[in-house]
Amino acid sequence: MSGEPTRRGTLPDQQVRAMFDRIAGRYDLMNSVMTAGLHDHWRTRAVDIASVQPGDRVLDVATGTGDLAFELAARVGPTGSVVGADFSSEMLAIARSKLAARQPGVAADVQFETADALKLPYEDNSFAAATVGFGVRNFADLDRGLRELLRVVRPGGKVVILEISQPTRQPLAGFYRFWFDRIVPLLGRVGGEDSAYTYLPDSVKRFPDPRTLAARFSAAGATDVRYLVTAGGIITIHSGVAA
Asked: Which domain holds residue 37?
């Protein structure tokens, strides 16, 4: 699709969806390369913070190729269920292919569904918890998306947001800028998708810092909002409790 973003690191919904459809086939590989394979560890930390229990029904928004949903499934067990929601049909297709390859009965019932994060097709208080892994940067309306996440989680349940952040201490901050400004777009160019891997670093730069995101999370209605900055400031995990 044509058209320029309104500002660096932003795109209209339709263009974000088209971008993720295009990169779906290489998304997992690029994630591993860009994070030196640490993204799975960060997802595990996020699920630890979500505190889901066996038998819970949980939601993973912007599920992509499903890795965070599968981690949740391992925690809620065969008596629980997980819904992975995304607006990219190609990303969901890969998630479903991964699901089909898993041994039946090992973990929870997992379903992957098409859904808009800004208008989730679920009733109020439907889930014990909700997560988003590396997805809230792409919400066209962050505050509306936060309210939707809180709406569908029952009172007392957690909403957990795993997201890339920008380190401020040297020398990591300098290396981080070099990696994301120069190397990541180069990797995208080699992979045949220059624009997506220019947009993604820009989306990190314009995203609220951890303290600001925590304040907006609280303003959206979350209580007991906390955040953990890890990996030298590269990753932040926010959690809030639905009222």
From this structure: 13-241
